[in-house]
Structures are given as C-alpha cells and as structure tokens.
Amino acid sequence: MTSLLMASTAENCSGYRTCAQCLEQPGCGWCTDPSNTGKGQCMEASSRGPMRMPNASAIAKAKSEPVLDPGLCPSDNHYNWSFIHCPGIIGVHRHRAGPQCIERACQCNGHSKCINESICEKCQDLTTGKNCDSCISGYYGDPTNGGSCQPCKCNGHASVCNTNSGKCFCTTKGIKGEECQLCEVENRYQGNPLKGTCYYTLLIDYQFTFSLSQEDDKYYTAINFVATPEEQNRDLDMFINASKNFNLNITWAPSFAAGTQTGEEIPIISRTNIKEYKDTFSNEKFDFHNNPNITFFVYVSNFTWSIKIQTFDFSLKMVTLRTAVISAVTSGTRALHAVTEALKLFIDINSCLTLATEYEFVIHPYTQQLIREMQQMASRPFASVNVALETDEEPPDLIGGSVKGHKLKHLKALKPERCVTGDICLLASAETQSPKKK
C-alpha cells in the first residue's frame, strides 16, 4: 500500500511547473537547474533529498521502497535542492498573520537571465510578465518552467486570442468558434470563414440596425452583408449609415457561391472614412433578368467599438398618388370634411411598427412604403389630390361641409390602409349634427 501511494505522489510531483506549486505538495521537492533563469523540476522527495521511485518490476517483487538518490539533483553541478522553501529566502518578516518568508529567488521560468538574483532581465521566447510567465499578445500557451508559446490559430479572422486557452477573439461580426471557423447561422449569417468570411443576409424592404456596444463586441472591426434582388424588373436601392466612420467596399457576383468560394466578385465602389452611403443599382446595368441569382456583397470595416450601423435595401416601384378614398362612418350617414386632416395623418406616420431583437431593429416594409409615399406627396406641395367618397346616399356637399342638411361636427382619423384598387385609404370616423327645428 505504501509503495502505491508513493508512486502516485511521484507522478503528481512531476506535474507541477513552478517551485511554489511544487513545495505546497507533501512529499515533493524542487531541483533548480544552474541556468540562473528559475527553471527547475519537481520530483518525489524527503527532507534528506530527492527520492528515486521503484520501477514496475521492483514493485512486483515487493521491493517497493523509494530510495534516496542525491544524483537526481547533483549539487556538484550547481543544481540547487529545495524541500521547505524555494531558493532565495533571505529572511523572515514578522507579520500579525504569522511569519512570512522574504524571497529573492530568480523566477523567470527559463525565459530570462536574472539580475541581482531576483529580477528578470528581458523576457524572451514570446513571453512577458514580471516572471516571464505569460505569452505575449497574439500567442498562447503555458510558458512556466520552460514551457512554450504558439501563435493564435484564428483562420485569419483575429490577431488576438486568450493567452491561456487560445480561444480567438474574432474581429468580424457573425464569425464564431474557438478558431473563428464557423458562421452564426442561427442569427442569419451565412458563408464559409475557412475559405472566405460570413455575411448577414439582408431582407429587401427591411431596415436593420446593428448596435455593437456590449463588452463582447469590443473586438469587432468589421461586418459583412449580402443582398439579392427579389424582382428582376426593379432597381435595388441601398442605404448605409453609422455612428462612427467606417470603410466600405461593395462588390457583386452572378451568385452567392461565386462570391464566397471562387473569388469572382466584381468591385463596384470603395470608400474610406465615411459615415453614410446611398446608391442605386440599376436592374438594366447589372442585367437582373439574365442574372436571376445576382448577389451584392457589402463589406463594412475599419470601425471602432462601440458603434451603431443601419442598413436598408429596398426594391419598390415609385407610387403616384392619384386618388385618396376616405370613408367616414356615422349612425347611418357617411361624410368627409377635412382632406387636410387626412394628409396630416399621412405625414405624421412614422416607424411605430418596429420590431426589436437583441441587436437588430426591423421596420415592416408596408410601413416603409407608406412613409415613402407620404414623403413623395409632401415634396409636391402644389400637387392636386382627388377625393372620392364611399356612400350609400347622395354625394355630400364638400364646399358647404354638410350632407343632406346635416352639418359635419367632428372628423377623427383612425388608420391608413391599402384599398383593393391599390390606392391609399384612410379610415375615419365622422360626427354630424342635425339642423335645429324651427
């Protein structure tokens, strides 16, 4: 039983990489090598010196007692043996919590020479820190006691990783994984970061807002989008703005696969240090008809944290307002009095139908189309608008503001809606006042 316990302890001793960790374990001692860098080895020991553990055959023959072996840490070759305190103890400081050792040991983990037996002169081997016990930025590993550091493996999508675990801090929004090897498909990102990058899939006629303000977003410096026109006979309008400056590159390819796998993207525009960009991509120029899978790639890069980015792609025909059909319902009488009241409601409509997600805000295309139509109408102050009424009775007297002797008292606009004819309708509630009896 004793021999098995000793063997287990020996295996555990060899796993400790610093003198302080080693001497905290019972039955372990530290042998410092003569390199004057703090490098050494933790091994099975007693107060008399290092112990040689029996091999498997000796254990089988019941000759399992560990044997004292000073040759494992030969002092003649300037190796230094420690069992109670790490090398460099020069005194004891009295403290109310108990006596504490004062150390002047060289603890550079084998990556630097010591100055005055305690200060690391210059950390080498891609290490940093007071004791050269951490990897420099862009590298990871365990450099203690002569350990090594290796470059972060991030597939070109990060330059910095966790110095201990090697987990990459991806710089492009939508790319994830320990080595930045995956796209966030659950959040509408697609692509292949092992061959290219990841893109957020934009919906035509929707507005998206990306708010990169959380602590986890601080490493992001780029975000990419992809948009495909839904109809071949309509232009694609694009609008992008941000709270800080960014660089912008837009390309196109006959299909999404061509753009992400074979690099056949064709440049369209390139801008630097901008906050806003608007453009229209003509269906005739880019031949949407013969390129039904045409894809536009939008690369937003070189921005700093934190930032808010908005993008809006739409592909709609311009709508000309010709007739507004407005219905007003009362107790048996339908009437209209104030067209200006209806127009005011049109102009005051805003993006109240906004759907918020974790970092995206989407405005429904129906609301967006109403807004564009209202803005177009408002930009034509001298245009005329014809008004038609739906009524089961005789047409009302619009000039006099009365209907068959009933005076219009109050008109309340309710909501806009699309008529079956494709025009804009406004549902309203009207209140009339009967003429006084003489």
Number of continuous helical runs: 6
> Total number of β-strand segments?
30
- The SS-based structural class is mainly beta
Outline the biggest β-sheet: 8 strands, mixed
Radius of gyration: 39 Å
First-residue to last-residue Cα separation? 121 Å
Helix content: 10-25%
Protein name: Laminin EGF-like domain-containing protein
Subcellular location: Membrane
Keywords: Disulfide bond, Glycoprotein, Kelch repeat, Laminin EGF-like domain, Membrane, Repeat, Signal
Chain-wise SSE layout:
Layout lengths: L1 H12 L5 H5 L4 E5 L7 E7 L2 E4 L3 H5 L6 E2 L11 E3 L6 E5 L6 E4 L10 E2 L3 E2 L6 E2 L5 E2 L3 E3 L7 E3 L23 E2 L5 E2 L5 E3 L6 E4 L4 E7 L9 E6 L8 E18 L2 H6 L4 E16 L13 E7 L5 E8 L8 E7 L9 H10 L5 E3 L4 E3 L1 H14 L7 E4 L12 E2 L2 E13 L5 E10 L5
Characterize the structure shown:
The longest helix has 14 residues, at 365-378. By secondary structure, this protein is mainly beta. The strands form 9 sheets. Strands 16, 17, 18, 19, 20, 21, 22 and 23 form an 8-stranded mixed beta sheet that branches. The protein has a 5-stranded antiparallel beta sheet with strand order 4-3-2-1-5. It has a 5-stranded mixed beta sheet with strand order 27-24-30-29-28, covered by helices on one side. The chain has helices spanning 2-13, 19-23, 56-60, 256-261, 339-348, 365-378; strands at 28-32, 40-46, 49-52, 67-68, 80-82, 89-93, 100-103, 114-115, 119-120, 127-128, 134-135, 139-141, 149-151, 175-176, 182-183, 189-191, 198-201, 206-212, 222-227, 236-253, 266-281, 295-301, 307-314, 323-329, 354-356, 361-363, 386-389, 402-403, 406-418, 424-433. The protein starts with a helix and ends in a 5-residue tail after the last strand.
